[in-house]
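Here is a protein:
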Amino acid sequence: MAASPELAKPASLPRVVAASLIGTTIEWYDYFLYGSAAALVFGHVFFPKSDPLTGTLLSFLTYAIGFAARPLGALVFGHFGDRIGRKKLLVLSLLLMGGATTLIGCLPTYDQVGVAAPVMLTVLRLVQGFALGGEWGGAVLLVSEHGDQRRRGFWASWPQGGAPAGNLLAAGVLSLMTAVQSDAAFLSWGWRVPFLLSAVLVMVGLWIRLAVDESPLFKAALAAAEERTEQQKPPLVAVLRDHWRDVLVAMGARMAENISYYVMTTFVLAYAVGHTHLPKQTALNAVLIGSAVQFALIPLFGALSDRVGRKPVYLVGAVGVGVWAFVFFGLVDTKDFTSLVTAVTVGLFFHSMMYAPQAAFFSELFATRTRYSGASIGAQFSSVAAGAPAPLIATALLKDYGSATPIAVYVAIAAAITVLAVLCGRETRGTDLAKAGAARGDSVKAATTV
């Protein structure tokens, strides 16, 4: 019998990791740039007729709408990614995301064209969400399926580093613009520069991504499927038939991870500037520092999950953010920069313990020809209930209660859901991805056919 394709660790693995990391960094830069701008700029530019807090609320509403398109992106990209390969879909997602972000930088304001401005902004946000819905699954699977099972947690965690790296880049560019410009100049045209910069970043990402080969595991599974004579079922049907429990585990696991991240990196900008009256650059710098630390932490926690398991690392992170949420806002309320940095950094420390093993954990739940669909559906459908409304809910709670305590309770409830979901899941460390379908009691056929 031929050796499992997973056992062959290609010499190109570092190049695959680099391509996935750089690509996800650019896509998350685009996505987080919108979130940061929604907290700091869009209320003034696209909703100037509202009071400041309501303007922020409306900005976050357009931010949340982007999440609504992510499940559609997961379904479409997952289906075709499981049929024709991971690489082609990753190139498409990068082009869609970069194009939408660049166009946001060209949009007219409300004062120029009226209500058409926020409508166009919302449409482009939907395109961003659609692209990101398909990006995550393909990026982490490309690395997971190239690497070996012994160190999969470490290698697969590198694309996860694209989130803090993208946030670091977005917050850094915005911080630079606010530092060198007056508030009037920044609101007039300076905010557009980071969005237009996306066009350059996308070209770099495409050059790197096009040089990467398709996953050897997918090639082997596709060849096996083509040799079969019976009609093949769509990937979505196979996921819902063979992996519905795993999809629910993935969705629950995302709740605390997604909600805590957007509260502690996006909403905190609006809270620090609007509620505690800190300067924009101070708030952005705190997120910058926290994101830099998180970028270093993610591969460490990914490696730790290879030693002790995915579930223990994930559970500590979920409990940690649930408890830290109550400390987080108290530190921000001190208006002290060191306390603000501590609040964000420790929050992202616990978030990293969930986010780092997540790529390997979700990849190991599904069979090869349904893996893109299964991982993407589990990750992106939960984002509609988790990350999408998180800044919106946090802003509404602050407006209604005038206190951050209800927001901390909200994060703690999400943490409890995640703990329950992960406890209900199985430990996947050491799973052979070529036989992952059989690990759920599926037939071997399910692992090699759609």
About this structure: The first helix runs from residue 13 to 40. The two ends are 23 Å apart (CA to CA). Confidence is low (pLDDT under 50) at residues 1-11, 441-450. Residues 272 and 278 are 6 Å apart (CA to CA).
